Amino acid sequence: MRVYNFSAGPATMPLEVLERAQAELIDWRGSGMSVMEMSHRSKEFVTVAAQAEARLRALLAVPEEYAVLFLQGGATGQFAGVPLNLTAPGAAAAYVNTGSWSAKAIDEARKYVDVHVVADEKDSNYTTVPAEGSLEVPGDAAYLHLTLNETIGGVEFPYLPDAGEIPLVTDASSTMLSRPVDVSRFGVIYAGAQKNLGPSGLVVIIVRRDLMGRARPEVPAAMDWTAMAEADSMLNTPPTLAWYLVGLVLEWVEEQGGLTAMAERNRAKAELIYGTIDRSDFYSNPVQPAARSWMNVPFLVPDPALEKPFVAAAEAAGLSGLGGHRSVGGMRASIYNAMPIEGVQALVDFMTDFEKQNG
Ligand SMILES: *Cc1c(COP(=O)(O)O)cnc(C)c1O
Q1: Where do the Aminotransferase class V domain residues begin and end (predicted)?
Q2: What are the residue boundaries of the structural domains of the chain, listed by start?
Q3: pLDDT value at position 108?
Q4: Cα of 173 to ligand 1 centre, how many Å?
C-alpha cells in the first residue's frame, strides 16, 4: 500500500517510474542484467546516460552553449564547487540570503571567496525575497548566487534577478522541473536530484561553457566541471542507478506534457493548500504571498502542542512526512511534481477535519 509522501527529500517518485524500474530491475531490456550491474562504459549505460541528458535538455530548452553534468556530492558539494570552479583565490562573490540553504551556501563559500551578502531577508524572518530591481551587486563579484526555492522556509523567487554581466548562479534543488525556466538567464544552475528529479546520489549542473576553464588548480577532480564535461561526467564511476532513474523521471515528465503542464498542475496544487490555510483561522503560513513556494508549504497550527498529534493522525490517515524541518518545527507539505493533486486534496480534507476537531 502506497501512502501520500510529503517528505522534502528524498521525496516521492512517480508510481509509473517505480513500476517501470521494477519491471526492468533484473533484466534491463534484454541485456540479462540490471542497470546497476552494468559497466558505466558499456554501450547500454552510455545510451541511458545520453538519453537522460537529451531529455533534460529538451524539457528545459537548454541552449547549445551550456554543458549538462551529472555529478556526485549533492547540492552541498556544489556550495564548494561553485567558488572552486568560478574564482581564483582572493576573489569576491555576491550572495543573496533568503534562508537556511542560502546560509549554508554562504558559509561554505566563505572558505574560498570574499562573500558580499547583497540582500539578507533576516528582518522578515526569511519570509520574503528581495524586491525586484533592488539588488546592488558590486562590480568585483565573480557571480551572484541565490537559492531559487528555499526548501525549509518555503520561499521561492517569483522573478529572476538581473545582475547584468555578472553571471547568475542558482541552487535550484527543490524547484528544478516544477515550471519552465529561462536557462539563458543563468551562468550556472545546479540541483540535487532527490527533490524533483529522482533518487538521491546525483547533482545536475547546467553550466554556460564560457564559464568553464576558470577552476582553481586545486579543485578536486570529482568537482572539476571542465574535466567532467570533457569526460561526459564519467571521469570516475557515476551513480549509474540514480542516473537511470532520473532518466525515467524525465521521460515521465515528458509524457505528462512537459514543464508547462507541470507548472499548471503545481500551481493548482499550491493554490489548493494555500487557499485552505488562508481561509482558516487555525492554520497559518507566514510567507509573503508572492514569494510562496509551489513545492514546499510550511504551516503552523495555533498551539505547538497540536503539532505531534497532527503529524501522528496524518500518518495514520496515509499522509506521511508532514513534520516540519527539525530546525524550525511546525509542519511542511512538500508537493513536488510526483505528488498528484489527489494527494493534496486528501491533505486539505484531513486539515479541515483536524481543524474541526481541534479548533
Ligand atoms: C536539499 C537541498 C540541498 C542539499 O542537498 P544535498 O543533496 O543533501 O547536498 C541544498 N539546497 C537546497 C535548496 C535543497 O533543497
Answers
A1: 3-347
A2: 15-255, 258-358
A3: 98
A4: 6
